[in-house]
């Protein structure tokens, strides 16, 4: 269960994996890491739908696979006009409207592979307040993060001002975290397993 409040202190105008609440609805840009319900709270609500309809310049960014999942669901297909798919491991400029002075603030957003679920992504935010990494749910092999090129500038690791880590397994009651082999073994649908390996 995600316990992230949806906002970073560096970029409070960007909401991540939470789509309800007074503070979140003040955001100008929305990011969805993947389609698990604990990261989609408020996404299907009438309040959020009206908010996006009232502000068509506000967008919900996610991976291409996540966008397809949302559009195939009757519960979320009404978000079609607000959904923008970003490519994995490619820096993209996202413009955020300042409602006070109507100026555009530019933020560079890079989706990084999270290895958790088909379409899952971590978000690297780069802008005036520094570099921020939001993980959402992730499952990377030991050493995999060091190989993610977008976390580097040449041979140097980019400085990360703040790291927001999903806290699902920070609960002391959880004594065992299944590894990928355990998870793959428990899959009962062979075709889903093959597709999952491709998407991850």
A few lines on this structure:
17% of the residues lie in helices and 25% in strands.
Q: What are the segments in which pLDDT stays under 50 over at least 5 consecutive residues?
A: 187-200
Give the beta-strand count: 11
Number of helices: 4
Structural class call reads: alpha/beta
What does this 3D model show about the protein?
- The protein has 200 residues and is an alpha/beta fold.
- The protein is built from four helices and eleven strands.
- It has a five-stranded mixed β-sheet with strand order 5-6-7-8-11, with no helix packed on it. The chain has a four-stranded parallel β-sheet with strand order 1-2-3-4. A two-stranded antiparallel sheet has the order 9-10.
């Amino acid at each position: 269960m995600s316990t992230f409040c949806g906002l970073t202190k560096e970029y409070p105008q960007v909401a991540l994996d939470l789509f309800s609440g007074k503070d979140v609805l003040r955001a100008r840009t929305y990011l969805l890491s993947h389609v698990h319900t604990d990261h989609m709270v408020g996404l299907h609500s009438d309040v959020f739908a009206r908010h996006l309809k009232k502000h068509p310049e506000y967008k919900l960014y996610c991976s291409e696979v996540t966008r397809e999942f949302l559009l195939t669901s009757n519960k979320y297909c009404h978000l079609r006009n607000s959904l923008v798919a970003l490519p994995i491991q490619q820096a993209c400029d996202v413009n955020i409207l300042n409602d006070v002075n109507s100026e555009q603030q530019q933020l560079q957003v890079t989706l990084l592979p999270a290895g958790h679920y088909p379409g899952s992504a971590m978000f690297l935010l780069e802008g005036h307040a520094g570099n921020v990494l939001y993980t959402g749910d992730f499952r990377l092999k030991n050493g995999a993060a060091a190989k993610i090129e977008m976390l580097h500038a040449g041979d140097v690791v980019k400085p990360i001002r703040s790291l927001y880590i999903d806290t699902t397994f920070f609960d002391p009651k959880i004594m065992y975290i299944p590894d990928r082999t355990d998870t793959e073994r428990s899959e009962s649908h062979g075709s889903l397993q093959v597709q999952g390996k491709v998407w991850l």
